[in-house]
């Protein structure tokens, strides 16, 4: 009789764990999600190995954090440590979510986010030389191949998420962790006024913390609350950390704030705002700068009714971001410069990142055209750069070719640039670039892939921010 029970037991295991190696099928494998190509147990143990590898790299890199008196190198090291820390967090999120069923569609974004961090860490060492750089490179490449392997065992998110909702009727339900006063603040009507407090970490202003000042300021709105800074590459801040304002973590919300970098066009790269926050939502904010104003660095981001100004590559990064109903305005920089509105950094086909600009107004300030400065919609920072412009106004300030090469023929066959149902004098397509990667999108089902519902799976997280949005192609 005993053997009968045993046979029954094994049969049950086979029925419950059809994809799994019989002996490794534990209770957590009972929830084998269909977005994974490997058993959950294998997925989790690969994640644990990757977390371990990141810890190893971290301890290698941190050995150098006190030895360098080279400003550039020590910045690169501290940026890298911060990025490794973010990566460990992303792997932790993935690991804990993998132990629960039905939580899977974030995995690819999170794992890809680790790869983005890896590359940003390495970029920090560009222009430095010596053993530290090559040691870091070697250690990081082990993590990169581990994590790439894990990412590619996760299927792409289902294409059917979210469609068919009434876009303008999202309830204003706020995250449970918001305090009552914070909800009131988010619901306040826009009101312009002059800024009247100064926040300085060194104690020379009215406050040392931004949050203390924001609690006190009676008036909110673009250019009423201004967060300002002027760090820049020309003065030695080449690093990822040089932005005026940086945010990481999950679920960042901002409203009615201006973020600016006042370094000016002579100072080269000068970031006003950098976001690493997954599921971040930014509403009615302004980003003012020149080169590299807005660094949409990593993970999923949504910008609604924002003003973004700059010169070279002023919206750049490797996040998956939708810009909806934004005003995007090129400014006058240096005479020999060409303006590129975007420089998206998608690096390989498995990388899900890209920029989608929808219902927006794209133009340049009058002195740009007066000075004959050419302005383009974007150029390919990395090999698989991906940007689409949907249903937007494009002014005559945009060059008829539309898009600018990065360096010779680099990326022209692998990038994906698309335009769909845009209007205005700069939207004509007859003189656009003829690169293999450029697409005049005519099929709405192709355009639909770049909407809030599909591209950033917004219907699963934007309603909780209280920010109104359109999830598809219809207003
Ligand atoms: C991390 O370092 C330890 C100790 O050097 C080593 O045993 C282990 O294999 C390393 N793990 C990974 C994933 O590299
Ligand atoms: C901030 O500091 C300035 C200069 O010291 C002062 O004039 C102003 O009243 C202060 N504002 C507040 C709200 O304390
Ligand atoms: C441009 O491409 C050429 C040829 O591929 C390469 O040698 C050069 O370093 C590149 N220049 C820049 C600035 O990337």
UniProtKB/TrEMBL annotation:
Keyword list, A-Z: Aspartyl esterase, Cell wall, Cell wall biogenesis/degradation, Hydrolase, Secreted, Signal
Highest taxon listed in the record's lineage: Eukaryota
Signal peptide: 1-25
Gene3D superfamilies named in the record: Invertase/pectin methylesterase inhibitor family protein, Single-stranded right-handed beta-helix, Pectin lyase-like
Entry-linked SMART domains: PMEI
Active site: 313
Coiled coil feature spans: none
Enzyme Commission designation: 3.1.1.11
SUPFAM superfamilies the record matches: Pectin lyase-like (SSF51126), Plant invertase/pectin methylesterase inhibitor (SSF101148)
Keyword Plastid: no
Pfam families named in the record: Pectinesterase, PMEI
Top-rank EC class of the record's enzyme: hydrolase
The Pectinesterase inhibitor domain, residue ranges: 26-153
Catalyses which reaction(s): [(1->4)-alpha-D-galacturonosyl methyl ester](n) + n H2O = [(1->4)-alpha-D-galacturonosyl](n) + n methanol + n H(+)
InterPro entries: Invertase/methylesterase_inhib, Pectin_lyas_fold, Pectin_lyase_fold/virulence, Pectinesterase_Asp_AS, Pectinesterase_cat, Pectinesterase_inhib_dom
One GO term of the biological process aspect: pectin catabolic process
Subcellular location: Secreted, Cell wall
GO molecular function annotation: enzyme inhibitor activity; pectinesterase activity
Metabolic or biological pathway, per its Swiss-Prot or TrEMBL entry: Glycan metabolism; pectin degradation; 2-dehydro-3-deoxy-D-gluconate from pectin: step 1/5
Family per similarity comment: In the C-terminal section; belongs to the pectinesterase family.
Designated name of the protein: Pectinesterase
UniProt source species: Coffea canephora (Robusta coffee)
């Amino acid at each position: 009789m005993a053997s009968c029970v045993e046979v029954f037991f094994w049969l049950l295991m086979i029925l419950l764990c059809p994809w799994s190696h019989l002996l490794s099928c534990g209770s957590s494998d009972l929830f084998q999600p269909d977005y994974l190509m490997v058993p959950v147990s294998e997925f989790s143990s690969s994640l644990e190995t990757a977390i371990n590898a990141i810890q190893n790299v971290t301890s290698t890199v941190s050995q150098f954090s006190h030895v360098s008196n080279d400003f550039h190198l020590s910045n690169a090291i501290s940026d890298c440590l911060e990025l490794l820390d973010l990566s460990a967090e992303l792997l932790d999120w993935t690991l804990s979510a993998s132990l629960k069923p039905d939580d899977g569609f974030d995995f690819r974004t999170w794992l890809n986010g680790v790869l983005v961090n890896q590359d940003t860490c390495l970029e920090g060492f560009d222009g430095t030389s010596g053993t530290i750089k090559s040691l870091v490179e070697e250690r990081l490449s082990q993590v990169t191949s581990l994590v790439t392997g894990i990412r590619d065992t996760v299927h792409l998110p289902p294409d059917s998420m979210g469609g068919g909702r009434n876009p303008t009727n999202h309830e204003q339900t706020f995250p449970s962790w918001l305090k009552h006063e914070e909800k009131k603040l988010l619901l306040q009507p826009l009101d312009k006024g002059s800024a009247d407090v100064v926040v300085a970490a060194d104690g020379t202003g009215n406050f040392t913390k931004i949050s203390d000042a924001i609690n006190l300021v009676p008036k909110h709105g673009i250019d009423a609350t201004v967060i300002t800074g002027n760090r820049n590459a020309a003065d030695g801040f080449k690093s990822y950390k040089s932005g005026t304002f940086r945010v990481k973590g999950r679920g960042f919300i901002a409203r009615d704030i201006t973020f600016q970098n006042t370094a000016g066009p002579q100072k080269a790269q000068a970031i006003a705002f950098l976001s690493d926050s997954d599921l971040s939502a930014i509403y009615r904010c302004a980003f003012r700068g020149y080169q590299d104003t807005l660094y949409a660095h990593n993970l999923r981001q949504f910008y609604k009714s924002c003003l973004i100004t700059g010169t070279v590559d002023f919206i750049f990064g490797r996040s998956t971001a939708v810009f909806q109903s934004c005003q995007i305005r090129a400014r006058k920089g240096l005479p020999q410069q060409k303006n590129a509105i975007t420089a998206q950094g998608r690096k390989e086909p498995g990388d899900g990142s890209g920029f989608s600009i929808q219902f927006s107004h794209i133009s340049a300030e009058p002195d740009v055209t007066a000075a004959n400065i050419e302005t383009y919609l974007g150029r390919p920072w990395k090999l698989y750069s991906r940007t689409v412009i949907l249903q937007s106004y494009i002014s005559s300030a945009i060059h008829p070719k539309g898009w600018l090469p990065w360096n010779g023929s680099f990326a022209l066959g692998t990038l994906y640039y698309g335009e769909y149902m845009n209007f205005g004098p700069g939207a004509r397509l007859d003189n656009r670039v003829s690169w293999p990667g450029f697409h005049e999108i005519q099929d709405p089902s192709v355009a639909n892939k770049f909407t809030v519902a599909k591209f950033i799976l917004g219907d699963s997280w934007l309603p909780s921010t209280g920010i109104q949005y359109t999830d598809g192609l219809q207003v």
